[in-house]
Amino acid sequence: MYQIIQYIKFLVKSTNQHGVHSPFVYNLVIKCFYDKTNYDAYKHILNYKKDLIKNKTSIEVTDLGAGSQVMKQKERSITSMSKNAGSTIKRAKLMYRLVNYFNPDTILELGTSLGIATHAMSLANPKTKITTIEGCPNISKFSKTNFRKHNLDNIDMKIGDFKKTINQLSNNNYDFVFFDGNHQKEATLNHFETLLQTSNNDSVFVFDDIYWSKGMTEAWKSIKQHPKVTVTIDTFFWGFVFFRKEQVKEHFTIRI
């Protein structure tokens, strides 16, 4: 119910490219968000998801974050996880376009899950160095094997608690960070603060499910007000954060 109410509010205040006066955001919306090109890679994205849906294997899942709102049992099939917890085809395609558009040298992903988004990022730029962290050992083992099966050679997979792992990575530099593993307010804000030191002027931070709960929405609002943040884009399911010092601080709500 919370998400339904928030979505109605989102629809009321959201706009498309015609309500955007920032050239940077306008180009992103037109050339990436609304790009209708039927990329060849989309077939691979679709096939990757289809293979997961067909997979009847069951694994024991360890939830270190907020957990699933749909699946509560520890023993879960790859089929059910890919339908309920994995990225949708629409979001995987958008992730492909984002990496294709920004062309980052380094990517960090918090929450590999079954690797649908990771796979899309890898396809978008095989030269990009992708570091992805998964808290559940069994999911990590499955996805790592799957990446090898699909010849994805630019992915470095790490297993463990996000907080401990990102502290070890805090001296690195990341052009693109996807926060998709712990949908809790305190954890999201802590991860954001830690990874701020890995960002540069052109870095992009993408937060998944910013309306997952009241706490996640509060975290999103806090992040928007951070002094280092200049531009944000709310697309309801993802929140985009930019640190471009040449930009005037501005917040956009865009329908995708």
Number of strands: 10
pLDDT < 50 stretches: 66-72
Strand adjacency order, main sheet:
5-4-3-6-7-9-8-10
Give the overall shape: globular
* N-to-C CA distance: 22 Å
Could you say which structural class the secondary elements and strand pairing correspond to? alpha/beta
Main beta sheet strand tally, sense and closure: 8 strands, mixed
Give the tags.
256 residues; alpha/beta; 8-stranded mixed β-sheet; two-stranded antiparallel sheet; 10 helices; globular
Brief summary:
By secondary structure, the protein is of the alpha/beta class.
Describe this entry's structure for a reader:
By secondary structure, the protein is α/β, with parallel strands linked by helices. It has ten helices and ten strands. It has an eight-stranded mixed beta sheet, sandwiched between helices. It has a two-stranded antiparallel ribbon with strand order 1-2. Strand 3, helix 6 and strand 4 form a beta-alpha-beta unit. Helix 5 runs parallel beside helix 6. The protein is globular and about 50 Å long. 38% of the residues are buried. About 3% of the residues have low confidence.
Describe the secondary structure blueprint for this structure.
Elements: H1 2-13, H2 23-33, H3 41-54, E1 58-60, E2 75-77, H4 78-84, H5 89-102, E3 106-110, H6 116-124, E4 129-134, H7 137-149, E5 155-159, H8 162-168, E6 176-179, H9 185-196, E7 204-208, H10 214-225, E8 231-234, E9 238-242, E10 250-253
Parallel strand pairs: 3-4, 3-6, 4-5, 6-7, 8-10
Antiparallel strand pairs: 1-2, 7-9, 8-9
